[in-house]
Amino acid sequence: MKKIIALDIETTGLNPRKDKIHGVGVAKSVTEVDYLDVNHNGLREYLANPENHIVGHNIRFDLKFLIHAGVTINCNIWDTKLLAQLLNENQELGLKPLSQKYFGSSALDNKRELDRAVSSINGRSVADLCLRDLEDESEPFYHIISKYCMEDCVNTLRLWTMLIDELKRGHNKMLQAGYTNTPLTYYMEETMPLEKVLIQMELQGIRIDVEQLRKYRDVLQSENKQMLAEMSLLAGKQINSIEEELYAKVIATKKTDKGKANVLKRSEKHGTKFNWQSSDHIATLIFDRFGIPISSVEKTETGKPSTSESSLEDLHNSLEPEHLLKRILGTYKTWKKTLKLITTYTGEDKGLMSQIEGDRVYAEYLQAGRGKEGTTGGTVTGRLSSRNPNMQNLPRGSEIKKFFVPDPGHIFVYFDYSQLELRLAAHLSQDPLLIRAYKENLDLHEITGQAIGADRQTGKSTNFAMIYDASAWRLADMLNKSVEECQLIIEDFYKLYKGYRQYLWDQRKFIMRFGCVVSETGRLRRLPGIFEHPERTKEWRHALKQGYNFPIQSLGASITKRAMIELANRNMKIVTQVHDSVVVSLPEDKLDKVPEIQHIAENIYPVSVPLKVDIKLLTSLSESDIIQKQEDKNEQQCSNDRTNQARG
DNA sequence: AGAATGGGCGCC
DNA sequence: TGGGCGCCCATTCT
To answer: Nearest residue (Cα to C1') for C7?
Structure first.
């Protein structure tokens, strides 16, 4: 590659719409470094030229600020953080840890001076320094900020040189071994092109019907209040007793110096009140005051009795109808669901509500972990993750999705891949029956169901369990059958899909030999647990399952992402993505584009079976749930028809 | 007082 | 005792 410039900006905060750019650092080489004003002419010309190249560490952050400030970005963009993740998804991805790893501690030359400056203004970060510097005309911190920024630029540039070289060496090795797709091709064809799409998505955000959301908040809150009163009344006696115990504990702890500060602080918030939001308190209520034996319920990771919904559901079912606890648990379950909605979505000053700017939210979509120092983070399979808010776990069928609406004059085009991962299991395994089922548009769930002597629903669960290599124990739990029965089901399953069984054997052989897996699009996943732990230990089995699942999940992620890239290349605005579904915002007078979108999605990547895409127009995100339900019904109907035909 | 961990739960 | 995520709260650690 020709000349490349490393770029890093310093800002007064993390929000490209609210915070200001302090300056732009650029490094042409390790000795030619500058810290420029955002309006610098030469800089603007460079970035506007499609022949130029820039690299940054998490460059999306910088570009969102620059674009918002009116800077045109037409040059090619590269990212050392995303590159580092492809080299090793288990390593720390921050600029500092990577610099440390690749060229030692010189990366921290200016750290001490910076820390001194930050603490001198009682600040927490360089952002505080930038803010103070911009506000104060005497600019007392400019030289510190610029020095720090330029150092980051140099480190990014050095890192780029070393990382891209390592990626190319790996690429050549894999080519010799017969691969056509490698982490290098993945980076060039998928990761970096997607960055431009994500920048557009994040800058655009999504509109919220704030008025309706507020109305819904009031409904939830009054419901919740009522339920809380009901529960507190029912459990009044037990709660009193627990509160006495809590009070005694506070008194006892107060007498020790150590406990003083903590207990007093907590007392300000909850006092010695029973807290329905505390799983500890709930456990005390159920297992101590109501005397439910802890042997009868599921245990948590640390061996304590679980108060999870499924655990309490079992308990609820086992109680006599007029048992007091049964009535409490009934209300508690609903109360907790409502509370979750309130805290995550409708509560003022937290969750979704606190993230609304005007009438929009601006979610982030991560390709790699944010890399807080000490953590690895990241989406190891190549899926995206979303946050602030997380658009990928909005509750299905709840009111919440109704409040996410298109811009005026626009409509949401929603599409999703039908049974994407099962189709990819067919493609990757080349199992004859799986392939035939999808080529001839047969109902796979029905086929499996019949083969194991069960209904369609059981067939469906079994099919999905297969992708995850579920145990008989787990399947039994899912299907409400005995473990022995499920062992037979699994045997029957693999007799039917011999090709898939062979595929798993081959996968296992590969994993045991190399301790890693490769996706068809060239993404790698190392499985250190394979060599670090003896066979058949818990950790080893976990790593093996990760290895089985990776090629399927990763290829699915690639396909959706590549569809997004192609759509964006054709000027379509993508609003959000949930792994196998995408929402595009289309002007109302451009609906002729809908068949084009579907065609692109279905044909973006060639596999051995047809990919099926369902596509619909929506006026809010909530309708995607309705569609999903309808699809299920349609499938059922088809299978009934076919069964009836067979009978007739 | 803030960071880290655990429990729990939402999604594909 | 399927895989992959993020976020809330309470609690403990430092």
So the answer is: A344
